[in-house]
Automatic annotation (TrEMBL):
Superkingdom: Bacteria
Species in which this protein is naturally found: Aliigemmobacter aestuarii
Protein name: HutD family protein
Disordered: annotated span: 1-23
InterPro entries, alphabetized: RmlC-like_jellyroll, RmlC_Cupin_sf, Uncharacterised_HutD/Ves
Length: 189
């Protein structure tokens, strides 16, 4: 298990150059925009325009902050507000239109012929015991703070930090703190 802090993420260009992304983690590490099996990233959408196309990829987009946006996905309009989630095939043409100022979103992408993804939103209270995704996955903190103590290694995660769960971390962990989080699990097909 490893902690990726939001404050340590470095910006890079979108695949289509139209915006800014911050990669949280990918498998294999360093795979780039076309070679990953799974990828977690946060993006800043500061202007209306097209989203990057990723053939063969399933995408889960979770709106983290901002006034919202409208996504046109294959000709259908989807109005998103902070906290909303939408799943779509990433080869489908998508255009985003901001409802106000810039927004920040979390992107969870998987190569559909290799993996499936499950995303659960959880509200955890002090002392919760959390089942971990198996065989691999992540815990993304939406708000609050949690301390995971796997085997005596206390990892403190705050809003927009991510705990990456490498294969072999099946089971449960006990948490202290209170947090609203996403439990993300990647399963081979």
């Amino acid at each position: 298990m490893r902690l990726v802090r939001n404050t340590d993420l470095r910006p890079g260009p979108w695949k289509n150059g139209g915006g800014e992304t911050r990669e949280i983690a990918a498998l294999p590490p360093g795979a780039g925009m076309d070679g990953f099996d799974w990828r977690l990233s946060m993006a800043t959408v500061a202007a209306d325009g097209p989203f990057s196309v990723f053939p063969g990829i399933d995408r889960v987009l979770f709106l983290l902050s901002g006034d919202g946006m409208v996504l046109d996905i294959g000709g259908a309009a989807h109005h998103l507000h902070t906290g909303d989630r939408i799943d779509f095939a990433a080869e489908t043409p998508v255009t985003g239109r901001l409802s106000g100022g810039p927004v920040r979103d979390l992107n969870i992408m998987v190569r559909r012929d290799r993996l499936s993804v499950r995303v659960d939103r959880l509200r955890l209270r002090q002392g919760a015991v959390l089942p971990l995704p198996d065989p691999a996955g992540a815990l993304f903190v939406l708000s609050g703070m949690l301390v995971a103590d796997p085997g005596g290694l206390a990892l403190q995660a705050q809003a927009w930090d991510t705990l990456i769960l490498d294969p072999g971390h099946a089971g449960t962990i006990r948490l202290s703190g209170e947090a609203d989080l996403l439990r993300i699990g990647f399963t081979p097909r």
